[in-house]
Design brief:
Layout: H1 4-16, H2 28-44, H3 49-56, H4 60-67, H5 75-84
Helix pairs in contact: 3-4, 3-5
Length: 93
């Protein structure tokens, strides 16, 4: 059975090593579809980016970057945006 000190030291060494993690990115087509649907719906219900951002408790520049396809939006953020646009998440795809 390993000593606790040895395990702690091993964890410390492992935690101190720098690792590079490659994150997955959605396809360009998916990002374009999502960003176009958000922008289109926002304009359809006559909201500015700032008004949509306020409804979502997000910064207006974040909404702009989502609409330009520059952000990989989390599911929880997507849910908030869809609700503010009076849509279901599935309606954005």
């Amino acid at each position: 059975m390993p000593m606790v000190y040895g395990d702690v030291e091993k964890e410390h060494i492992m935690a101190s090593k720098k690792t590079t993690i490659k994150l997955r990115q959605p396809s360009a087509k998916l990002m374009q579809t999502l960003s176009e649907k958000i922008r289109s719906r926002r304009k359809e219900i006559k909201l500015s980016q700032e008004e949509l951002a306020e409804r979502c408790d997000l910064h207006r520049t974040y909404i702009g970057s989502v609409e330009r396809g520059e952000r990989n939006v989390t599911l929880s953020t997507l849910e908030v945006i869809a609700k503010a646009l009076k849509l279901e998440i599935r309606d954005l795809f």
